[in-house]
From TrEMBL:
<dbReference type="GO" id="GO:1990071">
    <property type="term" value="C:TRAPPII protein complex"/>
</dbReference>
<dbReference type="Pfam" id="PF12584">
    <property type="entry name" value="TRAPPC10"/>
</dbReference>
<dbReference type="InterPro" id="IPR056917">
    <property type="entry name" value="Ig_TRAPPC10"/>
</dbReference>
<protein>
    <recommendedName>
        <fullName>Trafficking protein particle complex subunit 10</fullName>
    </recommendedName>
</protein>
<dbReference type="GO" id="GO:0006891">
    <property type="term" value="P:intra-Golgi vesicle-mediated transport"/>
</dbReference>
<dbReference type="InterPro" id="IPR022233">
    <property type="entry name" value="TRAPPC10/Trs130_C"/>
</dbReference>
<dbReference type="InterPro" id="IPR045126">
    <property type="entry name" value="TRAPPC10/Trs130"/>
</dbReference>
<dbReference type="GO" id="GO:0034498">
    <property type="term" value="P:early endosome to Golgi transport"/>
</dbReference>
<feature type="compositionally biased region" description="Polar residues">
    <location>
        <begin position="425"/>
        <end position="440"/>
    </location>
</feature>
<dbReference type="Pfam" id="PF23604">
    <property type="entry name" value="Ig_TRAPPC10"/>
</dbReference>
<dbReference type="GO" id="GO:0005829">
    <property type="term" value="C:cytosol"/>
</dbReference>
<feature type="domain" description="TRAPPC10/Trs130 C-terminal">
    <location>
        <begin position="295"/>
        <end position="471"/>
    </location>
</feature>
<feature type="region of interest" description="Disordered">
    <location>
        <begin position="419"/>
        <end position="448"/>
    </location>
</feature>
<feature type="domain" description="TRAPPC10 Ig-like">
    <location>
        <begin position="14"/>
        <end position="108"/>
    </location>
</feature>
Length: 484
């Protein structure tokens, strides 16, 4: 790649390969000054503005090569580079007119990833604040960052701006893992480049100071090598003694260097990845149990089996529970939840009502149980059906509450559990006329109840991954054989 900047007298250009500028390790950029009829005098220097994220590295053995206008090498001269906090000054050797000067500088761009909100699966759009101008390259899937550098030349009163494109060799992502109420934070770092790196001193900390919260590392302390396209996972257990904060801002950092480089005299900034977790504590535990028919030892294909779903509240009332679904009477709080039993693998047939709305007490160890029947369709060790849990947010409107509640619930393909909600007593004897009247009200713009997914980690399914043995049903066949 080559960028040409026309100036009144000389021409200044930079040369580098787009694939060679990797963030985080020293990279060489070649500068070429085509002098023209201007004569470089003693004291002439290029003034480069220093960006905080991209210092210019100086080596005493740096040389400037002088060529004639026919590209014939004439001589070499020592290159003097002086750096301050904001400016890097490059003293040019004295050169007569119509010559060319070339020299190389090493620059180092520090890669980092800004704070990114914990992704919510039910959001249609996911946005992340980014520093600088970043874009995703299609050929190697590495994020590229354009870094602007301002250069003041002695032969012009105008500043020259050049753009250097760096590719970030790492891609980081995080996930929240749960085991009941225990929480683990996992950070995955993938090497997207073609070279090998060496990692050391990985660390995860909270940007805010919480005395009652700690992050216990579960990672090896030894240095690790990460090869091209390889990923390394780091895990910390989140421990606390009092109530968890509603929001946790985390900063992951690690030291790194090229595994092939032997020169570590320069000081590299660690790679950092910032992210934020919200509402990550476990509110509910969902457990499913499947029992064979009465008198049978095992479940059989084609036979109805009993499925019991237990929903248990693990925490008392929190601020996240204070929404439209919360009802408080004399200090006793309940909330509306919707459960749904689905089997995407088509191993089970859910017989009867597979979803419903329950009124759940907001108290520790409050439990609601739902019973239904399922039929195994295949033999073998079958995984349990999935049990999904949602917040059920009804519409609170005076005009809307005058209508029969079960009409719009039934019209919205939702059912209310009769044991927990007194409003559902007559849901099974709805007339066709009442359903039609509600449907017509919906067409008039009447708001309907809505479902809201829980944040990742708020619902723990303790029966996820469990299997049960299903044996084939007994099937007698008569085979007639004639022997002559």
């Amino acid at each position: 790649m080559q960028a040409m900047i026309p100036l009144p007298h000389p021409l200044l250009s930079t040369h580098y390969s787009p694939d060679s500028l990797l963030a985080g390790i020293p990279q060489k950029v070649k500068f070429t000054v085509t002098i023209g009829h201007y004569t470089i005098k003693s004291g002439d220097a290029l003034q480069l503005s220093n960006a905080d994220a991209m210092p210019v590295l100086y080596h005493p053995e740096s040389k400037a090569v002088i060529y004639s206008n026919t590209q014939e090498k004439i001589s070499e001269a020592s290159l003097t580079v002086q750096s301050s906090e904001k400016i890097t000054s490059i003293s040019l050797p004295m050169v007569p007119a119509y010559h060319v000067i070339t020299f190389e500088l090493e620059v180092l761009y520090s890669p980092s990833v800004p704070i990114c909100m914990m992704e919510n699966e039910n959001l249609a759009s996911k946005e992340c604040r980014k520093k600088g101008k970043e874009k995703e390259t299609s050929h190697n899937s590495m994020t590229t960052i354009d870094q602007k550098v301002t250069i003041d030349c002695p032969w012009s009163i105008y500043s020259t701006i050049i753009s250097l494109t760096f590719s970030v060799p790492f891609k980081a992502k995080h996930s929240l893992l749960s085991a009941g109420i225990r929480k683990y934070i996992q950070v995955c770092v993938q090497n997207m480049s073609e070279i090998c790196f060496q990692f050391s001193e990985n660390n995860l900390k909270s940007s805010d100071i919480y005395k009652d919260l700690s992050l216990q590392p579960l990672n090896p302390k030894a240095e690790q090598h990460i090869y091209s396209k390889q990923a390394i996972f780091f895990v910390w257990e989140l421990k606390w003694t009092k109530e968890l904060p509603p929001t946790l801002q985390c900063i992951f950092s690690m030291n790194f260097c090229s595994a092939l480089s032997e020169d570590h005299s320069f000081s590299l900034k660690p790679y950092t990845y910032e992210f934020q977790l919200e509402n990550f504590f476990t509110l509910y535990n969902v457990n499913a149990e499947i029992s064979p028919p009465l008198g049978a030892e095992y479940c059989k294909t084609g036979s109805l089996c009993s499925l019991e779903v237990s929903i248990t509240r693990l925490l008392d009332l929190l601020y996240v529970d204070k929404d439209e679904a919360l009802t408080e009477t004399d200090g006793y709080c309940t909330t509306k939840l919707m459960y749904e039993v689905v089997d995407d693998s088509s191993n089970w047939a859910v017989c009867g009502k597979s979803s419903g709305v329950i009124s759940m007490p907001v108290a520790v160890q409050a439990t609601h149980k739902v019973h239904m029947e399922v039929m195994p369709l295949f033999a073998g060790y079958l995984p349990f059906p999935d049990v999904k849990l949602f917040k059920y947010l009804p519409h609170h409107s005076a005009h809307f509450m005058q209508l029969d509640a079960d009409s719009w619930i039934e019209n919205d393909n939702l059912s209310v559990d009769k044991n927990m909600d007194d409003q559902a007593d007559n849901s099974s004897i709805k007339s066709r006329g009442s359903i039609h009247s509600t449907a017509s009200a919906e067409h008039k713009g009447l708001p309907m109840p809505r479902l809201q997914s829980f944040s990742p980690g708020q619902v723990f399914n303790s029966s996820s991954g469990m299997q049960i043995l299903v044996i084939p049903s007994k099937d007698d066949h008569i085979l007639e054989v004639n022997v002559t």
